[in-house]
Amino acid sequence: MGGALAGLAAALPISSHADGAAAGWPQKPIDVVIPFAPGGPVDIAGRTVGVPLGQALRQTIVVVNKAGAGGNIAAAAMARAPADGYEFMLVLDSILTVNPTFYKDAGFKPQTDLSPVAQLGDLASVLVVNENAGIATVDEFIKRARSQRLTFGSGGNGTAGHLYGEWLKYDFGLKVEHVPYKGLAPAVQGLLAGDIDFIVALIPGVLPQIRSGRLRALGLTSTSRQTLLPDVKPLSSLGLVGFEGSSWLGVVGPRGLSADVVARFAVALRTSLDDPATAERLRGLGIEPAFADAAALQARIERESRMWARLLDKMNASAS
Questions:
Q1: Alpha-carbon gap, residue 71 to 252, rounded angstroms
Q2: Which label site among 61, 93, 245, 305 has the fewest CB atoms less than 10 Å from its CB?
């Protein structure tokens, strides 16, 4: 464990002022900002992990919701927060890997304004169609989408569901057209009503409709099967080779965080994820616990930022 902590500390920028303040950290409650409204999967995940995390750190974790602009408001505020180890943010990957390119001015720059702390888990998405669409397999879906125009919905421009659909269009030659909705729930209703042909959504957002038989799950964006949909295979193994990607949740803080604070927080988070009850509840939300340290998280942010920037450039897309 000592070697792992030393390696983690060496990978992070060190502030002498912050290191001095970190000697007795934590000495007061720690805020964990959720960049979305209460009640959603990210909010519930933050509150779920917050309990064992607080126990591991022997301090109270205070969940603070700061929604708006696809997570940009919370991220910009985090970039301006003091690097004293008492304010962190639970982020969905798109906030760091898509928003800085998609928005003309997201209000922050991940590489210079924020400190990666650790990854919490992965969230797979699933491609679904209406049960009455006459499409039962990925092969049938591909043939249909290459012979006629299909429409797909998402929770809005720049969301993962939007980008996955565009990925199918630009890299796999499918004739698909985006229909943005104001949230995933309306998009699901549009699919059920037959207004659109398919969506690619995080599993929890469509699981009730899949289980009731109203929507058919064709395949997963992940590279492996998922606990909530054990009979559904990855799309990359069903004809869409290379169509692989998972959303993820991670923790970041302001730039300049003490390496010691980052390491201690990361160890406490890993301990929390190792708790069977916590892991089971996260899986029930469609989140597969998957810890990664700050260096690995930083590498993933950089890699996926390049991937989405390439796609956004092809799309000539932005929020402005």
A1: 13
A2: 305
- CA-wise closest residue to 209 among 193, 195, 192: 192
Phi-psi region of 101 (alpha: psi -120 to 50; beta: other; left: phi over 0): alpha
C-alpha atoms less than 13 angstroms from C-alpha of 73 in its C-beta half-sphere:
11
pLDDT over threshold 60, residue 238: yes
The reply to whether the predicted model has a pTM over 0.70 is yes
What is the spatial distance between Cα 13 and Cα 115, in angstroms, rounded to a whole number? 8
Examine the pLDDT at 77 and tell me if it is beyond 60.
yes
Same fold, 30-122+246-315 and 124-237: yes
- Angle, CA of 73, 77 and 81, to the nearest 5°: 170
Q: Where are the beta strands (DSSP E) in 29-93?
A: 30-34, 61-65, 87-92
Q: Please tell me whether residue 95 adopts helix, strand or coil conformation.
A: helix
User: How far, in Å, CA of 306 to CA of 17, rounded?
Assistant: 33
Residue boundaries of the structural domains of the chain: 30-122+246-315, 124-237
Cis omega (within 30 of 0) on the bond before 289?
no
The residues facing 128 across adjacent strands are 199, 217
Instruction: Name residue, tokens 């988070």.
Output: 269
Answer yes or no: CATH 3.40.190.10 is held by domain 124-237: yes
Q: How far apart are CA 198 and CA 127, in angstroms?
A: 7
Write b or e for each residue in 51-70: b if 16 or more Cβ atoms lie within 10 A of its Cβ, otherwise e: ebbbebbebebeeebbeebb
Residue whose token pair is 């796999």: 172
The neighbour count for residue 37, using CB atoms within 10 Å, is 12
Architecture label for domain 30-122+246-315: 3-Layer(aba) Sandwich (3.40)
